[in-house]
Amino acid sequence: MKVTLLTHTPDPERVVAAAANLCYSQKVDVDTLMSSLTPESIKKLLTMLQNSGHESPFEHASFTFAIEGVSRAFLAQITRHRVGASYSVRSQRYCSEADFETIMPPAVEANDEARIAYRSVMADIKNAYTKMQELGIKNEDARSVLPNSCETRMIVTMNTRELWHFFNERCCTHAQLEIRQVANEMLRQCKEAAPLLFQNAGPKCVKGYCPEGKRGCGKAPTMEELLRVRMMLKWDEAMTKTTEA
Questions:
Q1: Sheet with 2-8, edge to edge strand ranges
Q2: Residue 122 and residue 115: Cα distance in Å, rounded?
Q3: Residue 135 near residue 85, CB atoms below 8 Å
Q4: In this structure, what is the dihedral angle of CA atoms 115, 118, 124, 125, given to the nearest 10 degrees?
Q5: Residue of 14, 143, 161, 170 with catalytic role
Q6: Higher local confidence (pLDDT), 203 or 219
Q7: What is the pTM of this model?
């Protein structure tokens, strides 16, 4: 698996800050808005926007990644994130997969019997695909036998707001391992490129609690647990005041 941040909106934090300021400025032109922003004012504004839930200005900053050495199963998952995202993927219709590589899941690779069975099936699939090509079957039809683990590569562009959602869902331990590894690497590179935009990005539990409830991994408290603790603290506070009185 290889993830490369190819490019992003120039000076993305300033662009987002200017877009937010524009919402509240009556007669200030855009050039003045851009030039008047200081590092301190940008940090203050972006933090305020994130804390207040005013997220639309963040859609003006986009990030483009090259993702290689991943499976078609990964492709099926990442393309569910389609709002504010664009994808270009190596075509199995126009490209021959006669020598396709596969992305073997670590759980399969770690099991001797599973690994042998996996390799046997992949060899059969490769033979069937090649046979279809020899019979004059077009790639677009021959690909019907190819596996979910068939290796692919793509270029993905997402705006900041969609990336937040992507990281919320796919950095979580509930996400499948392959997409979780890609998401964590994308997040690492985003934080290097624009730390203020992604200061609160990550799995859902970065909010301080796990919204999955009983389905959570147990590493973060659920909302119910936080409310229970809060009620206990209020009770203790009330009892303390009563005793002092």
A1: 2-8, 62-71, 151-159, 85-89
A2: 11
A3: no
A4: -140
A5: 170
A6: 203
A7: 0.86
